[in-house]
Amino acid sequence: MDFQYSNIKQEDFHNKCCSGRIWCIKDICGIICAILTWLLIFYAEFVVMSVILIPTLDSLYSVSNTILFQTLAFLAFASHLKTMFTDPGAVPKGNATKEMIRQMGFREGQVIFKCPKCCSIKPDRAHHCSVCQRCVRKMDHHCPWVNNCVGENNQKYFVLFTFYIASISIHSLILAVNQMLTCVQHEWKDCTAYTPPTTVVLLLFLIFEALLFAIFTLVMLATQVQAIWNDKTGIEQLKKEQATWAKKSRWKSIQAVFGRFSILWFSPFAKPSPSYKTDHYFYSV
Prior knowledge:
- By secondary structure, the protein is mainly alpha-helical.
- Helices cover 51% and strands 8% of the residues.
- Helix 2 crosses helix 6, helix 3 runs antiparallel to helix 5 and helix 5 packs antiparallel against helix 6.
């Protein structure tokens, strides 16, 4: 209990960048997965635009699908960045000192849960992440694809990320299959700016990618919605933890993640207002 909080705070560089101004996890596996995610989005962007839509951009079909695809792709990329660079709800390292406990107003003899790995007082429903090297409030899981934990502060962005990736995957799948059928019907004449073999390879890989990620992200989206609906995180379900907290109603659980119902639910740039107050000692600065 004599751990020096100030020393930990100064030496904690694992999850901060730009002189501590930006939250980011220095995990090589997560960084590779995040870059791979961006490359796959850019590949879909390249094939959909250069092979399918741009050659016939003078038609209403191409213009409307270009606007829809670009909007969804932008929101998917923005949601990924917000999930990746938002503090998921990390508890300050090293706050389990006698002085800090006294400032928090804990009574003598009161039971306090302390994390032995990051020397922090664990608030209710917080779990330690070995990759982030921090305890995270309402931690759902650590996702390498966003190189971050999914927790109290960024779960909305992760849900939007899975939703928009699933949307552009389904959209790309429909466009690619339609383009393939159109080219076959016209015997590959004037349906693409590329040679038939190149077009086939590009479209087949896009179909495979779109189908794979549509299934994967739809499953993740359903899992997240179910966890929010039942007010029980993924790690709590995995560990079969009994609810010791006051469970919210289903609508209140949704509002706790997305805020009050509005069109801003679907915006990765709108931060939901906190639905309840938590002791500021449990929040990173």
